[in-house]
Amino acid sequence: MPQTDAAAVALARGGDSEAFHSLVDRHSRAVYRLAYRMTGSPHDAEDVVQETFLRAYKQLGRFESRANFGTWLHRIAVNCSIDLIRSRPHRETAHDGTDLEQFGAAVERNDRAGASPERLMMSTEVHERIAAAMTGLSAMERAAFMLRHFEGRSINEISQSLGLKTNAAKHSIFRAVRKMRIALEPFVAEPAARGSLIADH
Amino acid sequence: MTDLKHFDEDHLVLHFYGELDAGAAAQTETHLASCGDCRASYARLQRVMAAVDTLPDSVLPEGFERVTWARLQPSLQRSSGWRSWFVRVPGSLALASAILILVAGAFFAGRLSGTPERADIVTADQMRERVLLADLGEHLDRSQMMLVDLVSAEDGGVLDMSAERRRAGDLVTANRLYRQTADESGEVRVRELLDELERLLVDLAASPDTLSSEDMANVRARIDANGLLFKVRVLSTAVRERQKQMRPRAGQSS
Ligand SMILES: [Zn+2]
Fold first, then answer.
1. pLDDT above 50 for B116
2. CB pair distance less than 8 Å for A50 and B176
């Protein structure tokens, strides 16, 4: 098995399928994680993984050998995720706040079901909470928020790649952030608000 | 506190992400420095965002890479087979698109129009079209058979899915290629049908070893709900008809 990505790419370009196999072994988990964040669905994430490697395989000739293969693949995976999200019919969520109310109610129900600020102080429970909050995002809210928050894309870029008007992209992000606040704010309050420590400054 | 209005949450989100222009950003900083309310609100936002940063990665089963490769490999072989042949030949994608549009036209117009080509002259393009039509026709037939088997599987009891799962996995790969071709050609309705089919196939390929009768009922409901079987059958018939039109007939020209 080739030692480095660069060596594997060189061999794969020459038609060595085992070399490409080694690239899949090294990078498929990272691609899946990205795709899952973007799409929120395990099945879609698996499809994105397949499509990403298929595109990478076809475009290997265009890969600049001095570039980082992981970075290059990451960009392809983001594009594949965007293509998949755009190919699905999506319903713009209502802008009257009803879904925010529903979201808040669901969070409360979840709290009554056993989650408490004290228990949520444990990081695994905070993580569960974040993951659960993510599932309350619409497909576009999730995609726009992920691109802004984790991929560092500007709102302008996001609106272009998702085929949204700038304002719609902005509002998707605002709504996503609002949902994150509803779900997480009680558990990340400053120490003073928890009555445990002296307030900052 | 300055005489500026307080900032709303959305404004602070834009500030957090560096989306404000330099002037607005500076103004925001100045206000935050002098307004305790906004500062507290911004600090809460920062804490929430910091928590979001810790979003855990999804846990994947061991063997994920193996399964990924098993599913990918046939597509790569295909990719260096007929598909890349189409990709390398200039104008070939347009050709593939034309075929799908043509098939789709017949499919949705509910009739088969178009004059068959002169049967005695077979161009390279026609050869390629035949290859693609044959592949697509076969794929649709196999998909149709699988749907029929699922719909007509005996009621009650559990269904052994191990064979069906493999079958679905094979079909997914081929289906993806046709869907992409339809997608690239902007043939929305064919793409939607193949997309619908693919989602079902992907789910079936990922199903557990056995399906309860309740799961089976769900699968059947899904096939029934959108007339999937019917649509696949109609498209398949359209492809077969087109193939017949393309077939060279000795001593006969229309
Ligand atoms: Zn203020």
1. no
2. yes
Task: Please state the ipTM of this predicted complex.
Answer: 0.83
Give the B window 203-222 contacts with A, CB below 8 Å.
203, 206
Residue A153's Cβ-count burial label (10 Å; 0-12, 13-18, 19+) is buried
Q: Could you tell me which residue, B71 or B82, shows the higher pLDDT? A: B71
Q: Is B89 on the interface with A (CB under 8 A)?
A: no
Q: Please name the residue that has the structure tokens 């309310």.
A: B37
What class does CATH assign to A97-200? mainly alpha
Cα–Cα distance, B108 to B129 (Å, whole number): 20
Q: What is the pLDDT of residue A147?
A: 96
CA atoms within 13 A on the CB side of B107: 22
Asked whether the beta carbons of residue A58 and residue B84 sit closer than 8 angstroms, the reply is yes
Contact in structure between B228 and B147 (CB atoms under 8 Å): yes
**pLDDT-based confidence at residue B205 (cuts at 50, 70, 90):** confident
Q: Can you tell me whether residue B211 is helix, strand or coil?
A: strand
Domain assignments of chain B as residue spans, ordered by start: 1-54, 55-249
The DSSP result for A145-200, as a single string, is: HHHHHTS---HHHHHHHHT--HHHHHHHHHHHHHHHHHHHGGGS--GGGGTSSPPP
SS3 sequence, B91-122? CHHHHHHHHHHHHHHHHHHCCCCCCCCCCCCC
Q: According to DSSP H, which parts of A88-138 are helical?
A: 98-112, 117-120, 123-135
Length of chain A: 201
Asked if CATH classification 3.20.140.10 holds for the domain at A5-87, the reply, yes or no, is no
* Residue B233, both tokens: 């059958």
Predicted local distance difference test score (pLDDT) of residue B253: 42
Which of A87, A74, A83 minimizes the C-alpha distance to A34? A74
> Residue B72: its chain A contacts at CB < 8 A?
24, 50, 53-54
CATH 1.10.10.10 residue ranges of chain A are: 97-200
Residues of chain A with CATH 1.10.1740.10: 5-87
The position carrying tokens 């709504």 is: A175
- Is the CB of residue B82 less than 8 Å from the CB of residue B95? no
Of B13, B58, B69, the CB nearest to A21: B69
At A62, list the tokens.
Answer: 């265009």
Nearest to B41 by CA among B24, B28, B26, B54: B28
